[in-house]
Specification:
By secondary structure, the protein is mostly helical. The protein contains 5 helices and no strands. 84% of the residues lie in helices and 0% in strands. Helix 1 runs antiparallel to helix 2, helix 3 runs antiparallel to helix 4 and helix 4 runs antiparallel to helix 5.
């Protein structure tokens, strides 16, 4: 049931790439809620573990949200320039996309340490496995909706 619901949300997100920002925020908020519920289900933390884990999780997700906002800006720039992509704009988009990827990797690396200290490394691994699976599902839906650049000069 949860997988089905997350797939529907990811699918809805794929239609928001060119939608108004208020609608995008509603979809992102829904995904955030569903992701947290899935993580809670997967982690099965004790009360003590949860009291330490969830504040760190919320902090991490807040920072990840900002990075994902940067990603959506890159996608929007791609969409805005899709019909007439200049070499300069393409280079700019590549640079911004690379920065987003690096920022996400740095953030994950720093929180692997924090979460591993807060709960066991095994549970931290489980968290990052679950989180990455959810992110991959969402990214796959988005990738399916973003066309390859056709006009290459």
């Amino acid at each position: 049931m949860k997988k089905y619901l997350l797939t529907i949300i990811a699918f809805a997100l794929s239609f928001t790439l060119f939608a108004q920002s208020s609608y995008i925020e509603i979809v992102r908020s829904t995904i955030k809620t569903e992701k947290k519920a899935l993580i809670a289900e997967v982690m099965q933390l004790s009360g003590d573990e949860g009291s330490v884990f969830w504040p760190i999780y919320n902090e991490y997700e807040e920072k990840l949200y900002k990075i994902n906002t940067d990603y959506f800006e890159v996608v929007k720039e791609f969409a805005d320039n899709y019909e007439s992509m200049s070499a300069e704009v393409a280079a700019d988009i590549l640079g911004k996309a690379s920065k987003v990827s690096l920022d996400k990797a740095k953030l994950e690396k720093s929180y692997i340490k924090k979460i591993s200290k807060a709960i066991t490394p095994q549970k931290a691994l489980r968290y990052f496995q679950a989180s990455n699976k959810i992110e991959i599902m969402i990214e796959a839906e988005l990738a399916a909706e973003i066309p390859l650049l056709e006009s290459i000069e």
